[in-house]
Specification:
Strand order of the largest sheet: 1-2
Bound molecules: zinc ion
Shape: globular
Radius of gyration: 14 Å
Oligomer: single chain
Order of helices and strands: EEEEHHH
Distance between the termini: 49 Å
Number of helices: 3
Largest sheet: 2 strands, antiparallel
């Protein structure tokens, strides 16, 4: 099985969870050497403010929110 190189590469926006096209997306952030793609400037800002929250998944995010 093979995939054409020019095919769209869908990646997940770690902030809001929606799929974004890796080749068309204009918003991204680099954290610990890994590039993360975001759907919008708002998601980019939210990720930049607290990347750990989004990389640990929704459970950690919920726990973090409850600390306030
Ligand atoms: Zn988003």
């Amino acid at each position: 099985m093979s995939y054409p190189l020019a095919a769209h590469a869908w990646v997940r926006d770690v902030v809001c969870g929606m799929p974004v096209d890796q080749w068309a997306v204009t918003f991204f952030a680099t954290y610990r050497g890994t590039r993360y793609f975001l759907c919008s400037q708002r998601c980019q800002e939210r990720f930049s403010e607290n990347p750990e929250t989004y990389l640990q998944g929704p459970e950690a995010k919920r726990a973090r929110t409850n600390e306030r």
